[in-house]
Write a structure and sequence with these properties.
38% strand; 28% helix; 10 helices
Length: 617
């Protein structure tokens, strides 16, 4: 009996030991979350997750509702214990993740389960429900009011909207189309702000450029409502409105990172965990939106250059005396402040017998808080063909002056160009006046030289068979040419029809030029050429001067010609894409490819659509 009893006790002990091991193993592979069941709005409280193991990887807290603001965390603490009973030793360890939260709104909120990999297995915690009711008295808010000077605060201190905010301002609230607006985002802080991230959204109604600011921010102190703030201009944009009406700049959300000092940290624990006595707290900051009223320009004069701002113009030849057939360069410079890059090329009125070539454009502009300032330089090459003295009239520029709110025309000085007789290698005769030039090839003929063929007396071509055949061929050819040229004259008389026919050809030629500029990695010249292709195409196709075009009347006129809404949207989108990508940051090659494809696709689709409509008619 004693043997049986002893065996039973032995089995019972074995069962108890295995059960204890099983229970310990189960508890080691679990996460226990804890937090107060009820708190008051504005009250700070702790959310902890405890894992009874030191073999933990990939800890992820549950989703914390936005109404429970995270002030600090997670901070990690480790605990280990050893015990000896009757000569037998045992040990245990645990890891605790702690968050400091603050409730902002009354209600009942649930924090979803946390998860981690414990001893190679993925485990989850319990969900936590917290009821928020009432208002906290004399806790965090009073503490904030005492800290009125900028500096680093203790970990767990809540960050209110009066501690860290962004002001948005525009230097003008009412402008004309194409008139620059300076948009400024300025940060005000009473906490230790270490970083701030935010991105300006795509503004389809504006052509915008960001002003480069120093990477190292320098704060100054400014008093707002009696409180000292550290403040800095975080970002600035110069924007040119492309549409009229009330245009909206949407609110932006920035994500800031604030450093706080952890005064309660154990020095030994800080030493063994990297020596850090600071924690980083993320804070979302919402910058308000703005409205800009954009007025349309008054009725535009016929010679309007497209310039909006304040400009001057000069013209100067590289020499005032040349020989016939030698080149002369006229440098035309447009300087000032405004949309310099969108001004049309100025026209120099050369005499009829001058050969003129395309201008070489040099961009010497810079982006400032006042807009685009500097100069656009046009070097125009011309070759005089005949001797004489020629007067080159002043070059004119008509623009809209945003200070005077009126159109103005500025002129350069005119100049006299003396053309001397060309050298002996010149194949062009020199004449002393324009009348002689006009008579060239009319009453002067060269004496024919070379071998001649003798004919017998009485051998005439007149009346022969060959004569009558040649006469019939000439008559048939004359009738054919008469019909062809008469039809061509009718077509040429219809200027709008000819412009419409040539629109696609001209746009294709410009896009080929843009493709060469893209391959040469010249983004500024590339985008200007693509813009000319788009505006020139639709201007010729709709028979409207480019300076009178806008996105609204383009859409209306294309719709009247039975062009579908999708095609119209693609063309307007191509314009927007081109104007945005001119100053988009990032990969210049990728941006030019994207813009080129958008422009060419839009023109092809409009051309195909209008051809189909024409066939149906």
């Amino acid at each position: 009996m004693r043997t049986i009893a002893w065996r039973c006790m032995l089995c019972m002990s074995f069962f108890i030991l295995h059960s204890s091991f099983f229970i310990d193993n189960m508890s080691a592979q679990s996460i226990k979350g804890s937090a107060p069941a009820q708190v008051a709005a504005g009250e700070q409280f702790r959310l902890t997750y405890t894992i009874n193991s030191d073999d933990v990887e990939g800890f992820r807290a549950g989703h914390i509702p936005d109404e429970l603001e995270v002030l600090m965390g997670p901070s990690t603490s480790r605990q280990s214990s050893f015990q000896m009973i009757n000569g037998r030793t045992s040990s245990s360890s645990s890891i605790t993740y702690t968050y400091i939260l603050s409730a902002t709104t009354n209600g009942t909120f649930t924090i979803s389960p946390a998860s981690a990999t414990v001893a190679g297995k993925r485990v989850t915690s319990n969900a936590i429900s917290i009821k928020v009711s009432g208002q906290a008295q004399g806790n965090g808010q009073g503490h904030l009011q005492q800290q009125t000077s900028p500096g680093m605060r203790s970990a767990g201190t809540p960050i209110s909207g009066s501690d860290l905010f962004i002001k948005v301002s525009a230097n003008k609230s009412r402008v004309h189309e194409q008139e620059p607006v300076l948009l400024t985002y300025k940060v005000y802080t009473q906490v230790e702000l270490t970083s701030l991230n935010g991105k300006m959204p795509d503004l389809k109604s504006f052509y915008s450029q960001e002003i480069p600011l120093p990477q190292q921010k320098r704060f100054t102190v400014e008093n707002v409502n009696g409180r000292p703030y550290r403040t800095v201009t975080w970002s600035q944009y110069v924007m040119f409105p492309q549409m009229t009406g009330k245009l909206e700049i949407p609110p932006l959300t920035f994500e800031g990172v604030v450093a706080q000092v952890n005064r309660n940290i154990d020095p030994f624990e800080a030493f063994f965990n990297g020596g850090s006595g600071y924690v980083e707290v993320k804070k979302q900051i919402k910058a308000p939106g703005l409205s800009i009223q954009v007025d349309p320009l008054p009725e535009r004069p016929a010679d309007f250059s497209g310039g909006v701002g304040q400009f001057t113009i000069t013209a100067q030849p590289d020499k005032t005396e040349v020989n016939a057939n030698d080149p002369v360069t006229i440098r035309v410079t447009i300087s000032g402040n405004g949309n310099l890059k969108l001004i049309k090329e100025p026209q120099v009125k050369f005499p009829a017998d001058f050969d003129k070539y395309d201008a070489k454009l040099t961009d010497k502009t810079r982006l400032t808080t006042n807009g685009i300032e500097g100069s656009m330089i046009y070097d125009i090459l011309a070759v005089p063909r005949h001797q004489g003295t020629y007067e080159i009239p002043p070059v004119e520029l008509t623009y809209y002056d945003t200070q005077a709110n009126a159109y103005k025309t500025v002129k350069s000085e005119g100049f006299t160009l003396t053309v001397n007789k060309g050298n002996g290698d010149s194949k062009v005769s020199d004449f002393t006046n324009q009348h002689d030039v006009d008579e060239l090839n009319k009453d002067i003929r060269y004496i024919k030289t070379g071998d001649t063929t003798l004919r017998a007396v009485g051998d005439y071509f007149f009346g022969s068979v060959g004569y009558w055949i040649a006469l019939a061929v000439l008559a048939l050819t004359f009738i054919t040419l008469l019909v062809v040229f008469r039809q061509r004259a009718i077509d040429n008389a219809n200027i709008s029809k000819m412009r419409g026919k040539r629109a696609n050809k001209v746009a294709t030629k410009r896009l080929k030029t843009a493709s060469k500029l893209m391959k040469s990695n010249k983004p500024a010249e590339f985008y200007d050429e693509v813009l000319r292709a788009l505006w020139g195409y639709v201007g010729d196709k709709l028979n409207i001067p480019v300076e009178q075009l806008s996105r609204e009347n383009i859409s209306q006129l294309l719709a009247e010609r039975h062009v579908g809404e999708d095609t119209i949207s693609r063309f307007i989108g191509a314009l927007d894409e081109c104007e945005f990508e001119r100053y988009a940051p990032g990969d210049a090659k990728g941006n030019m490819d994207k813009t080129y494809n958008a422009a060419s696709t839009a023109i092809e689709q409009i051309e195909e659509t209008m051809k189909k409509v024409k066939k149906v008619k």
